[in-house]
Amino acid sequence: MQVPGFSITEEVYRGRTRVVYRGRRDRDGVPVILKTFGDGIPTSVASASLRREYDLIKDLDVPGVVRAYGLAVQGDGPVLILEDVGGERLKTLIAGGVPATGRAAGRDDRGTASARRNP
User: Fold this and answer.
1) Burial class (CB in 10 A: 0-12, 13-18, 19+), 110
2) Per the CATH hierarchy, to which homologous superfamily does domain 6-86 belong?
3) Which among 19, 12, 9, 10 has a CA at the least distance from the CA of 80?
4) If the chain, 119 residues long, is cut into consecutive pieces of 10 residues, what is the mean pLDDT of each piece?
5) CB count, 10 Å around CB of 14?
6) 62 and 118 in contact (C-beta within 8 Å)?
7) Of the N and C termini of the chain, which has fewer Cβ atoms inside 10 Å?
8) Could you tell me the residue ranges of all domains in the chain?
9) Helices marked H in 5-117
10) CA-based nearest residue to 66, from 109, 112, 23
């Protein structure tokens, strides 16, 4: 996949409907996550879903919530551009032997809890 203004470095996740990539914004090298829909999903459905997700988080400035940088277009489909905080998928951590109650999970729990306490 190619998105104008961004360089994709790896595919992070591919599910039945969504695909997530890690990359960098070309103009300043900022790390980003690019989220889009896979083949077979109607463009109107994909656009509405990613637009809704973008609209929900674009104005949030809450610790523990990634920032939405914008929406881009790749071919006929939308791509949601998000802040990359350098995290790993929980599935990957567990497969690598890090227990769910380990350090990574605890850090995540505290971040979520503090985000809820500080509206």
Assistant:
1) exposed
2) Phosphorylase Kinase; domain 1 (3.30.200.20)
3) 19
4) 92 90 97 89 82 93 91 86 85 68 46 45
5) 11
6) yes
7) C
8) 6-86, 88-119
9) 43-57, 90-95, 103-117
10) 112
